[in-house]
Amino acid sequence: MGENWFLFFIHVTGTCAVFYIFFLCRMLGAGDIKLMALCVGMLGIADGTFVLFLGFLSASVQAVRELGKRGILWSRLSRLAGFVIQSGRDGKIREYPGRTEPYGSLRLGPHLFLGYCVFLLFFR
Question: Torsion-angle region of residue 26: left (phi > 0), alpha (psi -120 to 50) or beta?
Fold first, then answer.
């Protein structure tokens, strides 16, 4: 019993540590990170990572579709590339510049739930 709680704690802490950099850049919210940590903690590293992958895939498909409809996909991708290059050059963690735009955010929770449902339906 004690070993299961220890593994749960390690998985949750590790997931939070991995995604904390995205929180500092204001690319992910704290609630999204806690939800991802709970998925990995409850399912284990392999299955939890797969659920996160499915959720991220779902979110990326929706984001690309919406940005394509608005005609700003390539400008957003070039701004993201510039952000990554500038942050790497400066060696500092910066806030992502597009997060304050009204269409700049995407709710990740429903996509993680969809990834979990797809995992349960087809891979469990």
Answer: left
